[in-house]
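Quick start: what a row looks like.
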Amino acid sequence: MADIKKVEPAKDHPPEEGCYLRGNDYSPVAVVVILRWRREETPADIERLVRVAIESGAALAGTLQTENIGIEKIICNIVSNPNIRYLVVCGPESPGHLVGDAILALAKNGLDERRRIIATEAPTPFLFNIQPEFVQRFRDQIALIDLINEGSPEILRQAVWSCYQEKPTQFRQYELYDPGAYQSEPLSGKITWKITQPSLEPKSDEECAQREKIQSLVERIKQAGKRNA
């Protein structure tokens, strides 16, 4: 393992708070467990998967509830540590948010000009609060391992272990090994919180045009009020 390059994460790693545990910063793998329940109702088996991931050697492991701000936080925390080269996504898919589908589509397709994740069925997959540079770096830095709708601790241990190997190791359809740290410096930064409710943002040209008309009307009313004051 001495030939595998490792680097120091950013000083503020991981920059975003959330429901996750921090493990070995030099690990090549992080784990996301989909959470389809309210935070305070998190089942014991979901919490166990997070612990198993860390005990197996993951750099970070935590739950994900939303297909927008939740994904933005994950991106910030991963790109601040170039040693992380794999992201395992597991747990039962969320029927409301479809966060598993969203993060798979992001890794494969990226964002469109409206910052919407391309080709996902998730209802509000907009990443408004993060720099495009961070999104591209996330996509370049990590390979995604799809264990969506699976929750076996043993399978998760095997996936994490395979990512650690010095030589290519077959895990299902994946050939996994530790390639060493990503070649660029860590990216340090948090989400902007410019938009806290992505579901309320316009999702089409028609909605954008309607919003602009409303904003223009409101501005004219304000100006008229000032003139008549």
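That is the whole record. The longest strand covers residues 29-34. Residues 205-228 form the longest helix (24 residues).
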